[in-house]
Specification:
Radius of gyration: 28 Å
Structural class: alpha+beta
Strand content: 15-25%
Number of strands: 21
Helix content: 25-40%
CATH class of one domain: Mainly Alpha
CATH topology of one domain: Guanine Nucleotide Dissociation Inhibitor, domain 1
CATH architecture of one domain: Orthogonal Bundle
Number of helices: 19
Shape: globular
Largest sheet: 8 strands, mixed
Length: 610
């Protein structure tokens, strides 16, 4: 028997995904009695973030066979009233597939034991101590000799595992547009106080067989030497045309039903500029219609300059922190939480008819009644889902030993890899470093996401081969040394080494071409339900929430959360500003404060009379 809970609620929310948490917070903020359940022992569901050990446990759990629908027992039937039926909860949309993970480095540093044994036999006491110090520096997480570019530190499984708590790895990594709907909601609701963010410092693209920085702002456009003066004028004219609302219909009416690329070609843009606009600014394909391409370009340009030189923000500790921010607000206003407690069955009256309604859920042998039920799509009964998703997402997560494009300081990078060089679908690549608390110093995390065509591994294979080194690393291959500090900087010693290598072009060029070594990788596929009809065949007071979608940001989740709340409580405001803790006055405090002020006023008056 589970812990007994109160049995009457205004809203029961099942699943702690992004949309579910948003609706729970809004209902609690509106003064409703909210119960939030999740069968997992962690928040976020398919939106969660894990440390390295937690993600590996999630991988093992994902490989287990689906447990199937809840079998309605006699004990459950005993909780039903006349005209009610119990419908088992759960469906396969909660499961991921094609899960594949593995290490690409040895379990222990190669040759460490042999070198230590040799040192003890051949060195004097002083030399032995010096050699031991050298070994520690060569093999530890924090040491490296940047003055010798041909030397490198070999990461091992044991070294990475020791740092497992310093990882925050996302199942659904997403960025926020600086003027997007989620940022505005976080500010207006005062939920932003629960989160921290960092600006994405650079946007890259793949052009001409190599990574190239994308000029985002007006300053970038005029300072870059990668495009000509004539191209700079063309690009600025295009940006102005997309942002001018007065000439919107006149400018784009002719191309309303034509691809965006045709409009760009009509403006005599060069192939390079078309590439930048399509794949790095609008982040669309050649098949995208003009008005959608213009809208996405506007969204990019509108967010520039608000918090940095790019339009994007990344949540510290991972995207999985954001659902928890909404859960915190829900709890502050009285929402009740219980993890590791699923909804086993739904209690439905009038099942199979247009008047069907959900009276509540059965959880832990207890009946819990509610006026409304909000569920993540993976928790819903299979009979509620009239249409299965038409596609899915391919995801990959890599822990690497250096940045995709090393710079003078650590960068937070977005790359929308275009469908070129054997890449069939555009792949969104996000690289984050230790300053975001995503990984320990000296390491980086690379996320890849695209539309599913085959398995995740096959879908991103071409991009992985172009950007990363996935061969088993045994320490024998010469590589550029890795700076293992919190930021990947170019030290004076390293600069001197590069100057010395300039006289040997082949060697220097070979060093530049070295790719980041993958230490650990994970691939998996998950359903994409944002295009599914989640209201057909569902009782009127039940609302299903989609999981992560393909888009880069959280726009769909915010829109869906607003729509669900408006259907439940059309007369209530969606997440009005929450007071800061010091602004909250508990019952009775107001009267005590008034009485205290009156007493002080009387004393002051007496003092004056005396």
């Amino acid at each position: 028997m589970e812990d007994d809970l109160p049995t009457e609620y205004d809203v029961i929310v099942v699943g702690t995904g992004m949309t579910e948490s948003m609706v729970a917070a809004a209902a609690s903020r509106a003064g409703k009695r909210v119960l939030h359940l999740d069968g997992n022992e962690y928040y976020g569901g398919p939106w969660a973030s894990f440390n390295l050990d937690g993600l590996q446990r999630w991988v093992e759990e994902s490989r287990r066979p689906w447990r199937g629908l809840y079998n309605v027992t006699d004990d459950t039937k005993a909780l039903l009233r006349e005209g009610e039926a119990a419908v088992g909860a759960g469906n396969q949309l909660s499961a991921v597939s094609n899960v594949c993970d593995g290490w690409h480095v040895p379990e222990e540093p190669a040759g460490l034991a042999e070198s230590q044994s040799s040192s003890k036999r051949t060195q004097t006491d002083g030399e032995e101590a010096a050699e031991g110090s050298g070994d520690t520096k060569a093999d530890s997480v924090d040491g490296d000799d940047v003055s010798a570019p041909s030397q490198r530190k070999l990461w091992s499984q044991s070294a990475v595992k020791k740092e497992y708590r310093k990882f925050n790895l996302d199942l659904a990594p997403k960025l926020l547009f600086a003027r997007g709907s989620l940022v505005e909601l976080l500010i207006s609701s005062n939920i932003a106080r629960y989160a921290e963010f960092r600006s994405v410092t650079r946007v890259l693209t793949w052009l001409g067989g190599r990574l190239e920085p994308v000029p985002c702002s007006r300053a970038d456009v005029f300072s870059t030497d990668r495009i000509s003066v004539a191209e700079k004028r063309m690009l600025m004219k295009l940006m102005t045309a997309c942002m001018e609302q007065d000439n919107y219909e006149k400018e784009f009416e002719e191309y309303a039903d034509r691809p965006f690329v045709e409009y760009l070609q009509s403006k005599k843009l060069t192939a390079n500029l078309i590439h930048y606009v399509l794949y790095a600014i609008a982040m669309v394909t050649e098949e995208t219609l003009c008005l959608e391409g213009v809208a996405r370009t506007q969204r990019f340009l509108n967010s520039l300059g608000r918090y940095g030189n790019t339009p994007f923000l990344w949540p510290m500790y991972g995207s999985g922190e954001l659902p928890q921010c909404f859960c915190r607000l829900c709890a502050v206003f009285g929402g009740l939480y219980h993890l590791k407690r699923p909804a086993d069955a739904l209690v439905v009256s009038g099942a199979g008819t247009a008047e069907a309604r959900c009276a509540g859920v059965v959880s832990g042998g207890q009946r819990l009644d509610a006026a409304h039920l909000v569920m993540g799509v993976g928790h819903a009964p299979a009979s509620f889902l009239r249409g299965s998703p038409s596609g899915g997402l391919s995801r990959a997560v890599f822990v690497t030993d250096r940045s995709l494009m090393p710079a003078d300081k650590e960068s937070l990078t977005l790359l929308n890899f275009p469908p070129v060089d054997g890449v069939e679908e555009p792949v969104t690549v996000i690289e984050i470093g230790p300053s975001t608390n995503a990984c320990p110093p000296g390491l980086y995390v690379v996320h890849m996401t695209c539309r599913q065509r085959a398995t995740a591994r096959e879908d991103v294979r071409a991009v992985v081969e172009l950007l990363l080194r996935t061969e088993q690393d045994d320490g024998t291959a010469p590589r550029v040394s890795t700076d293992t500090q919190a930021t990947q900087t170019v030290s004076a010693a390293k600069k001197q080494g590069e100057e010395a290598e300039a006289a040997q072009p082949s060697r220097a060029q070979g060093a530049v071409a070295i790719k980041p070594q993958v230490l650990w990788s994970l691939y998996f596929n998950c359903p994409e339900t944002s295009g599914c009809d989640l209201s057909s065949g569902v009782p009127a007071n039940v609302f299903l929430c989609s999981g992560p979608d393909l888009d880069l940001d959280f726009e769909f989740a915010v829109k869906q959360g607003r729509e669900i709340f408006a259907k439940m409580y059309p007369d209530c405001e969606f997440l009005p500003r929450a007071p800061d803790p010091e602004e909250i006055v508990l019952e009775g405090e107001d009267e005590a404060k008034t009485e205290e002020n009156n007493t002080e006023g009387a004393d002051e008056a007496v003092g004056k009379e005396e």
